[in-house]
Protein backbone atom coordinates (compact mmCIF):
# COMPACT_ATOMS: atom_id res chain seq x y z
CA UNK A 1 0.00 0.00 0.00
CA UNK A 2 1.28 3.51 -0.86
CA UNK A 3 0.31 6.81 0.84
CA UNK A 4 0.96 10.21 -0.78
CA UNK A 5 1.45 12.95 1.77
CA UNK A 6 1.80 16.70 1.12
CA UNK A 7 4.39 18.44 3.31
CA UNK A 8 4.26 22.27 3.45
CA UNK A 9 7.67 23.94 3.23
CA UNK A 10 8.92 26.67 0.97
CA UNK A 11 7.67 24.50 -1.88
CA UNK A 12 5.44 21.47 -2.04
CA UNK A 13 7.12 18.05 -1.80
CA UNK A 14 5.39 14.77 -2.48
CA UNK A 15 6.64 11.87 -0.40
CA UNK A 16 5.91 8.32 -1.35
CA UNK A 17 6.15 5.99 1.65
CA UNK A 18 5.98 2.26 1.72
CA UNK A 19 3.80 0.89 4.48
CA UNK A 20 3.92 -2.87 4.09
CA UNK A 21 5.93 -4.97 1.75
CA UNK A 22 7.49 -4.01 -1.52
CA UNK A 23 5.47 -1.71 -3.78
CA UNK A 24 5.16 -2.29 -7.49
CA UNK A 25 7.95 -0.26 -9.18
CA UNK A 26 5.67 0.71 -12.09
CA UNK A 27 3.04 2.01 -9.66
CA UNK A 28 5.70 3.99 -7.79
CA UNK A 29 6.91 5.49 -11.04
CA UNK A 30 3.34 6.38 -12.11
CA UNK A 31 2.70 8.08 -8.78
CA UNK A 32 5.95 10.06 -9.04
CA UNK A 33 5.11 11.14 -12.59
CA UNK A 34 1.57 12.09 -11.54
CA UNK A 35 2.90 14.10 -8.60
CA UNK A 36 5.40 15.81 -10.90
CA UNK A 37 2.62 16.72 -13.36
CA UNK A 38 0.52 18.13 -10.51
CA UNK A 39 3.55 20.13 -9.36
CA UNK A 40 4.08 21.49 -12.90
CA UNK A 41 0.38 22.38 -13.20
CA UNK A 42 0.63 24.32 -9.94
CA UNK A 43 3.72 26.16 -11.16
CA UNK A 44 1.98 26.93 -14.45
CA UNK A 45 -1.07 28.26 -12.62
CA UNK A 46 1.15 30.39 -10.39
CA UNK A 47 2.98 31.81 -13.44
CA UNK A 48 -0.29 32.45 -15.27
CA UNK A 49 -1.69 34.33 -12.27
CA UNK A 50 1.52 36.36 -12.16
CA UNK A 51 1.21 37.25 -15.84
CA UNK A 52 -2.54 37.70 -16.02
CA UNK A 53 -2.98 39.05 -12.49
CA UNK A 54 -2.02 42.59 -13.47
CA UNK A 55 -4.32 42.53 -16.48
CA UNK A 56 -7.13 41.08 -14.40
CA UNK A 57 -6.55 43.71 -11.71
CA UNK A 58 -6.67 46.51 -14.30
CA UNK A 59 -9.84 45.06 -15.83
CA UNK A 60 -11.45 44.86 -12.39
CA UNK A 61 -10.48 48.47 -11.64
CA UNK A 62 -12.03 49.61 -14.94
CA UNK A 63 -15.22 47.67 -14.21
CA UNK A 64 -15.28 49.14 -10.70
CA UNK A 65 -14.97 52.65 -12.16
CA UNK A 66 -17.92 51.98 -14.47
CA UNK A 67 -20.04 50.70 -11.59
CA UNK A 68 -19.04 53.67 -9.45
CA UNK A 69 -19.99 56.13 -12.22
CA UNK A 70 -23.38 54.45 -12.76
CA UNK A 71 -23.99 54.45 -9.02
CA UNK A 72 -22.91 58.05 -8.67
CA UNK A 73 -25.10 59.09 -11.62
CA UNK A 74 -28.11 57.26 -10.20
CA UNK A 75 -27.50 58.78 -6.77
CA UNK A 76 -27.17 62.23 -8.32
CA UNK A 77 -30.48 61.79 -10.15
CA UNK A 78 -32.19 60.63 -6.95
CA UNK A 79 -30.66 63.55 -5.04
CA UNK A 80 -32.05 66.01 -7.60
CA UNK A 81 -35.53 64.49 -7.24
CA UNK A 82 -35.25 64.77 -3.45
CA UNK A 83 -34.14 68.41 -3.75
CA UNK A 84 -37.08 69.23 -6.00
CA UNK A 85 -39.52 67.58 -3.58
CA UNK A 86 -37.93 69.43 -0.66
CA UNK A 87 -38.24 72.75 -2.52
CA UNK A 88 -41.90 72.05 -3.33
CA UNK A 89 -42.62 71.12 0.27
CA UNK A 90 -40.78 74.21 1.54
CA UNK A 91 -42.80 76.43 -0.81
CA UNK A 92 -46.08 74.86 0.30
CA UNK A 93 -45.18 75.22 3.97
CA UNK A 94 -44.08 78.83 3.43
CA UNK A 95 -47.39 79.63 1.71
CA UNK A 96 -49.38 77.99 4.49
CA UNK A 97 -47.41 79.84 7.15
CA UNK A 98 -47.95 83.15 5.32
CA UNK A 99 -51.69 82.47 4.98
CA UNK A 100 -51.94 81.48 8.63
CA UNK A 101 -49.99 84.55 9.71
CA UNK A 102 -52.29 86.80 7.66
CA UNK A 103 -55.33 85.22 9.30
CA UNK A 104 -53.82 85.61 12.78
CA UNK A 105 -52.99 89.24 12.01
CA UNK A 106 -56.53 89.91 10.77
CA UNK A 107 -58.08 88.27 13.85
CA UNK A 108 -55.78 90.30 16.10
CA UNK A 109 -56.71 93.56 14.37
CA UNK A 110 -60.43 92.78 14.59
CA UNK A 111 -60.22 91.93 18.29
CA UNK A 112 -58.08 94.98 19.03
CA UNK A 113 -60.59 97.19 17.18
CA UNK A 114 -63.45 95.70 19.24
CA UNK A 115 -61.58 96.28 22.51
CA UNK A 116 -60.67 99.83 21.53
CA UNK A 117 -64.25 100.45 20.38
CA UNK A 118 -65.62 99.23 23.70
CA UNK A 119 -63.24 101.64 25.45
CA UNK A 120 -64.49 104.52 23.29
CA UNK A 121 -61.30 104.90 21.27
CA UNK A 122 -61.80 105.96 17.66
CA UNK A 123 -61.35 103.33 14.96
CA UNK A 124 -59.01 103.61 12.02
CA UNK A 125 -61.92 104.60 9.81
CA UNK A 126 -62.96 107.24 12.37
CA UNK A 127 -59.45 108.70 12.35
CA UNK A 128 -59.33 108.72 8.55
CA UNK A 129 -62.70 110.51 8.42
CA UNK A 130 -61.51 113.02 11.03
CA UNK A 131 -58.29 113.62 9.07
CA UNK A 132 -60.29 114.19 5.88
CA UNK A 133 -62.55 116.70 7.66
CA UNK A 134 -59.57 118.58 9.19
CA UNK A 135 -57.93 118.82 5.77
CA UNK A 136 -61.19 120.16 4.30
CA UNK A 137 -61.41 122.75 7.08
CA UNK A 138 -57.80 123.79 6.51
CA UNK A 139 -58.48 124.22 2.81
CA UNK A 140 -61.61 126.29 3.61
CA UNK A 141 -59.64 128.49 6.06
CA UNK A 142 -56.95 129.05 3.47
CA UNK A 143 -59.59 130.07 0.93
CA UNK A 144 -61.11 132.53 3.41
CA UNK A 145 -57.72 134.07 4.12
CA UNK A 146 -57.04 134.61 0.47
CA UNK A 147 -60.41 136.29 -0.11
CA UNK A 148 -60.02 138.45 2.96
CA UNK A 149 -63.02 137.19 4.83
CA UNK A 150 -62.70 136.32 8.46
Question: What this model shows, in words?
Answer:
- The protein is mainly alpha-helical and 150 residues long.
- It folds into 2 domains: 118 residues; 31 residues.
- The chain is 79% helix and 8% strand.
- Strands 1-2 form a two-stranded antiparallel sheet.
- Strand 1 and strand 2 form a beta hairpin.
Round the Cα radius of gyration to an integer and report it. Answer: 51 Å
- As a percent range, the share of strand residues is 5-15%
Count of discrete alpha- or pi-helical segments spanning 4 or more residues:
2
Biggest sheet strand order reads: 1-2
Structural class: mainly alpha
If you average the pLDDT, what whole number results? 81
Terminal CA distance? 150 Å
Please give a quick description of this structure:
The protein has 150 residues and is mainly alpha-helical. It has two helices and two strands; from the N terminus they run ββαα.
List the helices and strands and how they pair.
Layout lengths: L1 E6 L5 E6 L6 H94 L5 H24 L3
Antiparallel strand pairs: 1-2
Summary tags:
150 residues; 2 domains; mainly alpha; 2 helices; 2 strands; rod-shaped
Amino acid sequence: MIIIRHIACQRSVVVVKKIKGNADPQLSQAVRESAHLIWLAGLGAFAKVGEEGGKLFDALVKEGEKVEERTRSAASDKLEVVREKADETRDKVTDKVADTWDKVEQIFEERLARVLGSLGAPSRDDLLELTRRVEALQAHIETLRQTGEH
